[in-house]
Design a protein that fits this description.
Layout lengths: L3 H21 L3 H45 L3 E6 L2 E5 L1 H6 L19 H17 L3 E9 L5 E13 L2 E10 L1 H48 L4 H25 L7 E3 L2 H17 L2 E7 L6 E3 L1 H17 L5 E10 L2 E7 L27 H12 L3 E7 L3 E9 L2
Parallel strand pairs: 7-9
Antiparallel strand pairs: 1-2, 1-5, 3-4, 4-5, 6-8, 9-10, 10-12, 11-12
EC number: 2.7.13.3
InterPro entries: HATPase_C_sf (IPR036890), HATPase_dom (IPR003594), His_kinase_dom (IPR005467), HisK_dim/P_dom (IPR003661), HisK_dim/P_sf (IPR036097), PAS (IPR000014), PAS-like_dom_sf (IPR035965), Sig_transdc_His_kin-like_C (IPR004358)
Keywords: ATP-binding, Kinase, Membrane, Nucleotide-binding, Phosphoprotein, Sporulation, Transferase, Transmembrane, Transmembrane helix, Two-component regulatory system
Length: 403
Amino acid sequence: MIYIGRILTVAASVILTAIHLFIFNERIEKELIDFLVITSLAYFLGWQYDRAKLEGRRREENAESYRQLVELLPEAVFIHENESILYVNKAGEELLAASGKTELIGKSIYTFIKSDYQKLSFQHIKQVCREKTPVMNTEKELTCLDGRVIPCSVSSLFMPFQGKKTLLSIVKDLTSHKEQTAQLVEKSEKLALVGQLAAGIAHEIRNPLTSIKGFLQLTRMQGEHRDDYFDIMMTELDRINLIVSELLGVSKPVDVVFKKQAVTPMLEDVVALIQSQASMDNVQINLEIESDLPPLYCEENQLKQVFINVLKNAIEAMPDGGIISVEMKRKSGFITIQVIDEGIGIPAEHMPKIGEPFYTTKEKGTGLGLMTCMKIIESHGGELGISSEIEDGTTVEIRLPVT
């Protein structure tokens, strides 16, 4: 009842007046003025009491409404005094992988902030407490109770709570945002690569097409059959066919089944296969393989394709002949294959572009072969490294993990 204070105080005034009259046996006319004054004062006091009680009830209801609202917010909310957590809502429990509030309340907020961000967080807390101005959307990383590390955006503001000078921090999980950003960056990089590849294809195919068109026009104008023209046009058509074939090899999906296989016979087969071409170019291949090498989980045909491409590049890098040394050995969890030639080498300024599509140092190359090799080695969890010196040759090292 909202009138309980007034009813009680007026009733008390009436009772006290009646008792006074009964004890002192005085006439009611003499006490009437006093009675009216006391009753009015009692009524005023009761009204003030009812008003204060009503305001208190409204404040409690508002506080409960705010508490329920904060509890249901989708963003994590933490209230902390200096570094000690006093309150956390349901979203905050889920963010830090807590099974209940008791796992978080009373703990230091620095328990959950990664060490790299603790100094910055301390400065922000001091700034908010000193200047009473919010600090908005600062990025931090939090360590959850289950060990996960999540990127977050934190906004903090000064707010009294339970009679204490506290800070309210709203924490937003940025994991999905970061993943979406990474996906957008990856897509943009892929689009850039597609654009680069398309430009390279257009350039590589336009040159031989221009030559073919020119010789056809010359043949029509001169009105005579020229075998040398047709030889050049056939060469240019072969080049277009080579580019298209290598593009198909790069782009077509291949079902790869990895098996546990010995890599020694693979390399020996490839060297035997390419030995005839090497002899025709006055190139000698020396093969040195460490004994008892462990097997690899790999795809045989793909690795053979890599070995063939690397050896062919080495042969073509030595137009005057020479020696290619092929060494295979085990080094700390990897099997390494080194192909060392005595060729013309690669200039240092060209090294960063090695492996890009349509970038090549060979007269009739496309650059797609080495790009394919890198893709295959990467799919096997390995690495392909190239070092070179002008006129001192090139070393290609392939590292494949044993496990």
